[in-house]
Every structure is written in C-alpha cells, then in structure tokens.
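Aggregate trends can hide what the representation actually does to any particular protein. This step matters because it turns folding into a mapping between discrete strings. For completeness, the protein is quoted in full, as a sequence line and a line of structure tokens:
=====
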Amino acid sequence: MAAITGGERGESAPVRARGRARQAAAPRVERAANARVDLGCLPRLIGFNLRRAHQCAWRQYVSVIGEENIRPGLFSLLVLVGANPGIAQIDLGTHLGIDKASVVALLDRLERAELLNRLRCTRDRRRQGIFLTIRGSEALENLLAAVRTLERRMASKFTRQEFELLLSFLRRLYA
C-alpha cells in the first residue's frame, strides 16, 4: 500500500506528527479486573443522568407491574382518558408529547384489549372522544394502586422539599 503524504490528506506534517505522538504515548496494557471505571464527562450530562434514572424507574415498574402488562406510556394514556372522559386524540398526543400516528397505535392497542372506546363526536364528526370501558376503569384502578406504591418507594429517597424540587426541575426540561 502506498504511503499517503500530508498533502494528500489535506493536513500538514506537524498535525500528522502530533497525532502519532499522541497515539504512541497511550500505554497499551490490559486493565486490572477491578480497575475503577472513569466515566469521563458522563456524570455531568443531563441526558446520561436522565437515562440512568429512567432505566432504574423502568426496572422497578417492570418488577411491580410486569413487562407484559401495561407499559408506562399506555398507563399515562389511561390516566389521561380516565381523568378526562371524551378527550380527543389530539389532546392526548399534546399532553403526552407524542405524535398523532403513535397516539392512534396506542389507542388501537388499548381498544383491542377492551380497555377503552372511541366514540364519534356528534357536534364535530371529525373528532372522536376517548372513554374508558368498565374493564379499562378496573385496570386503571389496579394500576394506580401499584404505581402509587412504586412512586412512594422511589420518592422515599428524597425529602418532600427535594422531591418537589426534582419534579420542578424535570418539568422545566420539557415545558
């Protein structure tokens, strides 16, 4: 293979030399099995910390509710429908931060599970009101009890004031 000169790469010789020197200076030794992992900048990144917190919350949710049951997104949708009988699909998407197509897919899933109904609005035939079925109301009641227990467990890591502050900081990110 022919050597590539600095001019062919579009870089000067000093840049090439610095790059090689940097690579040569990094020791290539196997890490000890118990070596402390340097997380670099990750602990100071909002996204990294949110993701780790989300993973922790997800694992706890699955341990209480079960992975095959109602997932958190569907739970949120059920809560909104239960609290706002007749709510429109567009309002669900707006308040959950999800697009129209995703809302339709979620509603289809919950309707197949017989947890909710869509009824055409008599005043505006383009609009459908979303309502919980009796089965949906019962499922939501059971889910709420389990989620409240889970939330109390997670919130117990904070004082009341810290918890309220945490929620206000999180809301600030998406409001």
The helical segments are 6-9, 13-25, 46-65, 72-83, 89-96, 100-112, 134-155, 160-174. The chain is about 60% helix and 5% strand. The first strand starts at residue 87 and ends at 88. Residues 1-13 have pLDDT under 50 and may be disordered.
